[in-house]
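Revision sheet: structure tokens.
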Amino acid sequence: MSVSSIEVRCGGKRRAVVFSDGETLLAALRNAGFSLSAACGGKGKCGKCRVRINGVQRLACRVAPAEGDVVELPETAGGAILTATVPVAAPTPVGAQEGIAAAVDLGTTTVAVRLYDLKTAAELTTRSAWNAQAPYGGDVLSRIRYTMDSSNGLHELSAIIRRQTEELILAALAACGRGQDELRSVFLAGNTVMQHIFAGLSVRPIAAAPFKPETLFADPMGDTLLGAELNYAPCVAGYVGGDITAGLLASGLCSAEGNSLFLDIGTNGEMALVGGGKVSCCAVASGPAFEGAGISCGMPALKGAVSHVRYDRGFLYEVVGAGEAAGLCGSGLIDLVAVLLRLGCIDAGGRLLPPELAPEDLRRHIRPDGQGNGVFYLTEKVYLTAADVRSLQLAKAAVAGGIKVLLRRHGLRACRLDRVCLAGGFGNYIDPKSAMAIGILPEILPQRLFSLGNTSLAGASMAAIDPNKRCELRSCAEKCQYIELSGLREFTEAFTDHITFDTTED
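Predicted:
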């Protein structure tokens, strides 16, 4: 097998990258350590691995590199990774502790590490990065498939994420002048799939019904990282993981009075309803639309992403980095659809109207798509198609359907909720009014809606520095009653009811 090389340019730097016969450019870049987004896992469907090859735009997953090619990669800097959390209280002293504890939020899209001094419980520093597994797919299903399709896939993905986490911890230690020998323990919280991959455990059982994982991490795994003890947050089911139990711990909802809805929405929508002495939880496959993937002009919340849209005698929008608009991230997509729905450019059924049926003063923004629908242009480069609206409808119907099942199991209506707590980037960046307008969130009073930031990192931090919180975390997991929505007629009906943009509560 012959080996050739290409020149890769990224961020003003140049590097020679070798490749083998039969490799795609995406595979060669992966092997060289470049984290190029490929939301579909390299199937040629998402268009997110687009790069310039010898000056021509191509999909890296669909082109074979040639000797001497010059590849220009997009800048990856500029995206904000959410590390803000609810306050993490110092534990009650239980004896002299020396050294450093690390808390890790292992997300599908991002990874965050926070260090604590065990003697004082003082927060030392935080480091974060985009998950290096991104070239293997934008969601957990893509990564599960990769472990099944590639003979060495599980080991490969596990090695990538463990190495990245180690590098983040080492960088954090160096930043505060501490050594690796001071690291005593690591506590990690992530969804069930990500925790399995990190631990090197097969995720094949989570791929199909009954979606039963190898472990729920209720007991210590005997794992280590950088020579320190590594513990995982307990999970509830295949698609309700340690990030949710950590979130319930951080929010304090398991012991709160009244009725509380906890939502952590991304490519997978995980949620829990606490009230009446019980905790019910479920998960929905909301898809990547909320994170900008699978959308014609979709992108992560990186430089150039339209993050918010409103209308005041014209379309006004905010762009990450304050430069030229290059695409729509999830919050911008939700805002835009909510605005177009209110203005009558999208009807209640979700149809993006063609110019001749749209309000006359807005027709200049709309062009026909040749199939009886319209294409709305926010700018010449940033537009919305009927298929994009449909993708958002499917995502929001899944979330709203899951919420409806939980409410029914508790005999509640949305207006009876005392609080709705939003975790993660979804809750931090979206405009709740837009989310309610299109039916993602139930209609509730603004004072009952709370954005809690990165609750997975907060819960992991609590468990990292306080052994008593680890017991409380296990208790949260044990209280959760999991509802499997797959094949459940009640959910199918709720999903169907919420496909349209009619937000009337039944």
